[in-house]
Amino acid sequence: MDLRKGQIEPILDPNQSTYVYHLALDIGGSLAKVVYFTKDDDYFVDSEEGISNKKALEKSNGSRQYPVLNGRLNFKKFETSKINDCLEFINSMKLHFGGNQEQEIPGSQPIAVKATGGGAYKYADLFKERLGIILDKEDEMDCLVAGANFLLEVVHQEAFTYMGDQKQFVQIDQNDLYPYLLVNIGSGVGMIKVEGEGKFERVSGTSIGGGTFWGLGKLLTNCKSFDELLELSYRGNNRAVDMLVGDIYGGMDYSKIGLSSTAIASSFGKAISDNRDREDYKPEDIARSLLRMISNNIGQISYLNALRFGLKRIFFGGFFIRRHPFTMDTLSVAVNFWSKGEAKAMFLRHEGFLGAVGAFMSSDKHGLKELLANQVVQKAPSKLSFAVDKIIHGQPDGDESIECSVYAA
Predict the structure, then answer these.
(1) Which residues lie across from 37 on neighbouring strands?
(2) N or C: which end of the chain has fewer CB within 10 A?
(3) What is the DSSP secondary-structure string of 393-406?
């Protein structure tokens, strides 16, 4: 089978005895995300027991059993400013040559790979020149919503709440998922009202997002990476920089309107009255104040939009969060405060890969169904599904994969 004909070409990972059946990209302003599926073994199993490929081919059209591919859905990220690292990863896996060194034939036709995000346009020529890959572009918002819907419907314990250092997984009823507000925090922030499969509307957004945190943090603290800035914020105390309600009211609460003495009255407000230069403030305190300022702002705007449309559930995604406890807690407290406890902030385990997963799933109509249909004699499946077995954490590079089965339903 050939991707150039809209079908999936199995791609051998030279480092393992696995085959890459498909990959997709989401290249944003800050990060490039890669999602790809690998089959760990060279046989198919059905819903009852393991069967070899030979036996699968002998199954009759009338069988009630369905073909299954066991493998992993893999997630990997790169800084967009270091896009060459992403290119080198694809090259090292030989994804663009089907994992076969012998296919490196000069002048061979480019292979199409699904991609979304602004970088799918910005780096299209680079991917074609360096790897012979044509980036088959999918709409960014379509992919975000499709990725979120897929993960919420399929992955067990994908959604969770986090407040006061307490993490609690949320059981999602597939029949009661919609409507919800999807807040995607990337370089900027997009807020999307999702009403069903393919039914959504971008209702708001803000330019004060992850890129703001990273950019201002780099200027104010000299941190060289987003993760370094986040790590620095762990050690900080925002009270050394922010003006609190107690600073204005002599250590007292403003109880009439429900503000405690520790509530932030003005982010970075102490810098106004303190007779100190920037160098006199600790970088970790600045990082903490900056993170809290941006998270509070996003949380408040998100709730106001949820209120506007009568939505009780707000899902936060995007790599700004990074499962950072303080970030999640701040977003949750903001939503809880402004909604008076009526709305909850919820987070996604694969928060940063929504667009890449959506781009991956858009390939369904181009090849994944055909892959299964051609491997097993049966009617062409009407829908492709994933049964997730478990999520694998602790990868050396901080990425992860989902053990899953792909089957026709």
Answers:
(1) 22, 73
(2) C
(3) ---TTS-EEEEEEE
CA–CA separation, 110 and 112 (whole Å):
7
Domains of the chain in start order, with CATH, are: 3-140+353-408 (3.30.420), 210-241+281-348 (3.30.420.40)
Contacts of 292 (CB under 8 A, 6+ apart): 238, 242, 264, 267, 326, 330
pLDDT at res. 74: 83
Residue 232: both structure tokens together: 């620095």
Is 116:26 a contact under the CB 8 Å cutoff?
A: yes
- Using CA atoms, how far residue 391 sits from 71, 82, 191, 394, in Å, is 12, 27, 27, 10
pLDDT digits (tens, 9 = 90+) for 166-206: 999 998 888 889 999 999 998 899 999 999 988 999 999 99
Q: Which pLDDT tens digit goes with each residue over 246-270? A: 888 877 877 777 778 888 889 999 9
Output the DSSP codes for 163-218: ETTEEEE----GGG--SEEEEEESSSEEEEEEEETTEEEEEEEES-SHHHHHHHHH
What is the distance between the terminal CA atoms of the chain, rounded to a whole angstrom? 22
For the chain, count helices (H), then strands (E). 13, 18
- Average pLDDT score over residue span 37-66: 42
d(CA 276, CA 257): 32
Residue pair 260/290 in contact (Cβ under 8 Å)? The answer is no
Give pTM, 2 decimals: 0.77
Phi, psi of 181, rounded to the nearest 5 degrees: -105, 125
d(CA 274, CA 179): 47
